[in-house]
Amino acid sequence: MAATAVGCCLCACSTIGGTQTDTAPTTDTVSASQDTRSAGDAQDTQDDSGSDTFTVALDKTATWNNGVKAHLSGFSRGTSGEYASPSGKAYLAFSVTMQNGSKSSIDLSMVSLSCPDGADEIFDTDAGFKGTPDTHLLPGKSQTWKAACAFPKAARNAQIEITPTDTSDSGSYRTAIFTGQVQ
Fold first, then answer.
1. What is the pLDDT of residues 78-117, one digit of tens each?
2. DSSP labels for the chain?
3. Which residues contact 125 (CB under 8 A, 6 or more apart)?
């Protein structure tokens, strides 16, 4: 349902752009590295091309023009538990940190997270994968939560997409596409 709401918000007239930055340290248990794209491909040029997306290396920070940031870290692999949804699936787990550098609050329950190749997001409360927090992130604050995507054990190329939602009616956020290799 959140993805549908985000899709509706993407139809707004203005766009909150974004870039890739190096500001957050990495503490990965699974090695995550940038794919083989050139530096020009890896950064948002903030031109007027009308693109709804920008690409970020898995171990970098996405920064939107209004100061909102997202960072993925702590990559690990596992298998979802008996009571998880879906259960018994190999997954790629990671932490998502959102930092609100804007002047408006962000409804974290409306943040869209899309897994590689349209795979299922894993919901496993025993492992701490509960989905996005059901709270608003005030300006100047940050929040971290755990997430996991179904991800075959042999897979190496990951693409995780994050789109915040602007509830202040000042525009829509571009989708940050985190991409790279994991071991």
1. 999 999 999 999 999 999 999 999 998 999 999 999 998 8
2. -HHHHHHHHTTSSSEE-EEEE--S----SS-EEE-S--HHHHS----SS--SEEEEETTSEEEETTS-EEEEEEEEEEE--TTSBS-S-EEEEEEEEEE--SSS-EEGGG-EEE-GGGPPBPBBGGGTB--S-SSEE-TT-EEEEEEEEE--TT--EEEEEEE----SSS-EEPEEEEEEEE-
3. 83
